[in-house]
Design a protein that fits this description.
By secondary structure, the protein is an alpha/beta fold. The protein has a single domain (11-158), classed as Rossmann fold, CATH 3.40.50.2020. Helices cover 24% and strands 27% of the residues. The protein has 3 helices and 10 strands. The longest helix is centred in the first third of the chain and has 16 residues, at 11-26. It is globular, with a radius of gyration of 15 Å.
Amino acid sequence: MTGAPPVLYSAQDIAQRLSVLARTLAALPDRPQVAAPVLVGAFVFAADLVRALAAEGVHLETEMIWLRSYGNARTGSALSVLAAPTEHVKDKHVLLIDGVLDKGNTMVRASKLLMEAGAASVTKVVAVDKRHDDAVTTADHALYTGVKDFIVGYGMDDAGRYRALPYIGKVED
């Protein structure tokens, strides 16, 4: 592939949807107390979301979770836990944040780890929930749903490439 991938969702559209999502999350009855981004793909979305929530008066503590499921391939592989949540989440409402929910295995594993660490509740939020028919879970909240393309940018990558794009693009083979 030459040049940057074509834009699927612009930085401006992402920012608008992010603002709406932050208002929705701030209005939850069990307001989030801790943000738990899944590294590495969630770090850009999580940073923007945490700042948007702060603008809504919701100031979150942060507990990073580091799981690896893709490596340098486009298909899922064995899921490994590089950094699990700590007792810091005990008895707190946790906002589990990831970039993309493909089949859902990462989200299920991260949710389980948070509950095992004592979280009072886990709300799953992603930038993109692909909503595959064979997915094992869905997100509670997503900026976008039903995307079929392989996507990059806004923290998501293709074998390490395109993670820093300010938009969500689609990779064309």
